[in-house]
Amino acid sequence: MSITHNVSPEWLETQYQRYQEDPAQVPAEWRSFFMGYEFAATRDAATGDNRPAAVQALIRRYRELGHMYACVDPLTPCSLDHPFLRLSALGLTDADLKRTFSVIDFILEQASLKDIVDILQQTYCRTLGIEFMHIPIPEERSWLQKRVETNSNKPEVPLEKKLAIYHALLKATRFESFLHRKFVGQKRFSLEGGESVIPLLDHIVERAAQNSIEQIVIGMAHRGRLNVLANIFEKPLENMFAEFGDNACYQIVGEGDVKYHKGYTAYRKVAGREIRISLASNPSHLEAVNPVVEGKARARQDRHPKDGRRHIMPLLIHGDAAFAGQGMVTETLNLSQLDGYKTGGTLHLVINNQIGFTTAPTDSRSTIYATDVAKMLNVPIFHVHGDDPEALIQAANIALDYRQRYRRDVVIEMICYRRHGHNEGDEPFFTQPLMYEKIRNHPPTAEIYKNQLLMEGVSEDKLDQISTAVDNRLEEALERQVCGLHEIFLKQWSHISRNFSFDRVATGVARQTLIDLSSRLTTIPADFSAHRKISALLKKRHALITEDKGMDWGTVEALAFASLVHESTSIRLSGQDSRRGTFNHRHATLYDTKAAVKYTPLAEIAKNAGARFDAYNSLLSEAAVLGFDYGYSVETPDDLTIWEAQFGDFANGAQVIIDQFIASSLAKWDRPTGITLFLPHGYEGQGPEHSSARIERFLQLCADNNMIIANPSTPAQLFHLLRRQARHRYRRPLIIFTPKALLRHPACVSYLADLETGHFAEVLPDPQPVKKCRRVLLCSGKIYYELAERRDEGKHKDVAIVRIEQLFPLHTELLQEILSTYPNKAEYYWVQEEIANAGGWDHLRPRLRELIGKEPVYVGRKPSASTAVGSHRIHKEEQDQILFNAFAAPK
Ligand SMILES: Cc1ncc(C[n+]2csc(CCOP(=O)(O)OP(=O)(O)O)c2C)c(N)n1
């Protein structure tokens, strides 16, 4: 992309006028542009010589295109001829090489063309290509330009560091070959071909610590993960080998997971400083962990006493095929500059081994680089030869300094190869015979680097000593094999119980406290101009509370939040349009009508209590945002972290996060979470994608008390449920199906007495006494109100309606207790508005049968491939039929 790309002629004209007044008035690179332009113009006219301008243009071409010609692929010989960078391409000839030129905005002010070209080739076309001219901010571009041109893009590496690199490379190589020999046939997803990752990560940890970074939160996939655990996290080899032996002394909590998915935390000492490095547990689903790592990092940053973004850094390690292929990558990149989700810049390392399982780049991406998607952020991207660890170190130095300085993401792509098949049992010659023929003959990086060091005069003895030490360490560890302690709960989780229980938690809040909180929620600062209708709404809310006239959902939700933050529990609420609320029921943040100012009353109440209330409108993504909030919740057991879907129907856009993390992180990795989901649900005739949050899908994921699935039908129930979530001894994900029409339903209200005492009721008995009960309707959620109305209309006084408010874990004792108040011979119906292959039916059917001693009668929509009909008329007919059937005489 050219410097003039995307600038208007008027803007250019103004800049040129400013340059003519005083060249210092415009940024350096524009100075160079205008100078070249004038050179060309004047010399052209005076002497016909436009070579000085051509030299200036050549410099620019190297900066813009050099990375395309850089020598970064270990499997392809380097091209020495670059058509766009030939002298002739700019009207220059070899005869000009000796001539001295004055140049500007370059490391030298005057030099022979030969020297200039040498510097440019060294800097931009050696083993480190850098893409940075697409960055639209001149200051950033010129900072990067200086950084690379000052040392011809080659760092000074002292001998001690060179030996450390060699040591790291050997550790990487030998770890893999040792496992290969000693644990034959076991999958380990060898790093071989990309061993430079180890000296690179070593250096990143070291440099980060020197750069004021205290913690690195890391996410990575299968490839090389065990190698990273052994050699970067320094997980004891004795433990790793015991794990490889699947030694029975390992106590597995829950169901466990394969070795290359588990998380780990370590503290490393670097130059007198301690740096915490943690690796997030992740599923096989490539890139799914990205937003989780961001959320974890953000939670830690938010709790850092000062400038958490500076001191805590996320590091994501990707495969080339996955980085180019998975939408989660783009979604996560898109989080990076947003108020509610930014983390001060993520360092991305793409291990490009030029293959994804058996698929070649020509089949896996439509872009030139595997990293092209990251250009959307306008950040620098380094492409580095995987056999040149020193070039990787140069890239890491600049990348880390850039992140700390500009607080933006940065990408290092390491181009390497994969020595074996996708895993150790895989034959790569079946599909990539030519590539693997090259790989077969390609020496490992450690050998290449050893030769470099020998050429530089390092003694072979010294290098052999390092080699022997590496081998000895592996052998000794194998002898000693011991089971390590299973990694236990993180420190901040130590006071949380692992065990679910139905123990009741008193979640009532004193009447006067609620009234006081209401005043604070509804009083707008004098200098704030709220929208007329919002002021009226707040007044009405306050009146509902003080006069105890029946509070609606939005009012009670606000009181639940207020009471929690008032008791110093922080709340994070994130989702599409969550500040206002999709259905206009929340208005957590008010917008001044005259100035660009916002006011969030809950945040003020929180601040007073030393807590936080953060409500964020998210980007339009489900997967990355839920992943982020899940990650946030894992680090903050004492907070309430809520993700809200616009409509629950869209939650399946985040299905991988729900299945792979929320439902199963406790079972797989012993990682609990109290993440809470608000999923608007209900059949209101709005069509197939605005009706169902797929209750059945969540219920299908339930086992071993792993999640709480609730469908509260009153504002008070929501109040107690949210407060219980923050106050119980244990934490479990809480999935709440929230209402839409009920937000304004006159019967869906609660009173102060309901909030003052009590607790969440997993089952709600019929609020009215039913004499001579002939039928019990069991139901959940909104249909209750329609049933109750129909009962009153039809004077069906002998029909009881019982609401199951918590579908899982089902409180069978309580349900039994309630049902025992009705005669044995009564008919039992399950009534739902969902289609028969959805809702609570399939899950509850066997459980109810067992409890009641007979099969309940099903009343609801028929099975359907689509969740709901498109026609409002048909919806109403169906709904009416359900209500009719619920009370009709049995067939
Ligand atoms: C979301 C997802 N889809 C498919 C797979 C199956 N799979 C595992 S590894 C792999 C290839 C990954 O290639 P790349 O990202 O280049 O990493 P590499 O294995 O080459 O290091 C595939 C397709 C997966 N794990 N996750």
Description:
- It is a single chain.
- The chain is of the alpha/beta class and 891 residues long.
- It folds into four domains: 3-126, Helix Hairpins (Orthogonal Bundle), CATH 1.10.287; 159-487, 3-Layer(aba) Sandwich (Rossmann fold); 511-756, Rossmann fold, CATH 3.40.50.12470; 763-887, Rossmann fold (3-Layer(aba) Sandwich), CATH 3.40.50.
- 42% of the residues lie in helices and 12% in strands.
- The chain contains 32 helices and 24 strands.
- The strands form five sheets. The protein has an eight-stranded mixed sheet with strand order 3-9-10-8-7-4-6-5. Strands 14-11-15-16-18-17-22 form a seven-stranded mixed sheet, with helices on both faces.
- Strand 5 and strand 6 form a beta hairpin.
- Helix 6 (159-182) crosses helix 7, helix 7 (197-210) packs parallel to helix 15 and helix 23 (623-635) packs parallel to helix 24 (655-662).
- Thiamine diphosphate (TPP) is lined by residues 223, 284-286, 319-322, 351, 353, 355-357, 418, 422.
